[in-house]
Amino acid sequence: MSVVIRKIVTVVEETLMEMGKGVNPPVRRAAAIVVIENPFAGRYVEDLSPLIAIGEELGELLAKKAVAALGIDGTKVHSYGKAAAVGENGELEHAAAILHPRMGTPVRKALGKGAALIPSSKKRSGPGTTLDIPLGHKDAAFVRSHFDGMEVQINDAPRANEIMVALAVTNGGRPLPRVGGLTVGEIKGEDGLR
Q: CA–CA separation, 110 vs 126, rounded Å?
């Protein structure tokens, strides 16, 4: 089964100032969002392996688009996160099948690494829903400066028989982080935690 794509949207956010203080270098976030047909909308299907394969396909597509929008080499990406929203005729397990078993491998390949789990969220909703994409450092989940999120929306998605899938990447953590914890310079990147 091949994925049927209705729409692809790319969003770039650049923070230059926070509370009147300059952010140097600016923190950039990019999200690539795809709206696809849900092949299992409206019916229960035991074997979700076609959606798992679609997740792998979308991981490669979205990673390429998000990294290109960010404008840096994939190895320079700091954080990542993913999210999906199924339309009303889908189920959360459809989003899980896309996001979890195989989507991460092509994303990590595009970034040159990615020892940490890719934070994710999923929900069922209708057109215009907001996806809150959780973000975390790609190599060390305990880097507090990179606990963040990016909000994205497409005004006409997901329709009842669709799934909206997003991947976000960043060039840094939150603007002006100062809550302590493991720093980027202290990352070992061995266990995905530190």
A: 31
CA distances from 94 to 13, 45, 124, 180 (A): 29, 10, 10, 38
Distances (CA, A) of 45 to 94, 160, 162, 167, 173: 10, 17, 16, 26, 40
Residue 32 CB partners (closer than 8 Å, separation 6+): 8, 9, 10, 61, 62, 63, 65, 66, 69, 166, 167
How confident is the model over 64-100, as pLDDT tens digits? 999 999 999 999 999 999 999 999 999 999 999 999 9
Quote the distance between the C-alpha of residue 30 and its chain's center.
Answer: 9
Among the listed residues 193, 171, 179, the one whose alpha carbon sits nearest the alpha carbon of residue 70: 171
Pick the closest to residue 166 from 111, 137, 129 (CA basis). 129
pTM for the full model? 0.96
Name residue, tokens 């997901």: 158
How many Å separate Cα 32 from the centre of its chain? Answer: 8
Distance between CA 80 and CA 68 in Å, rounded? 14
Q: Which CATH superfamily is domain 5-186 in?
A: BB2672 (3.30.1330.110)
Per-residue pLDDT tens digits for 18-66:
999 999 999 999 999 999 999 999 999 999 999 999 999 999 999 999 9
Dihedral sign of CA atoms 30, 35, 38, 41 in order:
positive
Q: Give Rg (Cα) of the chain.
A: 17
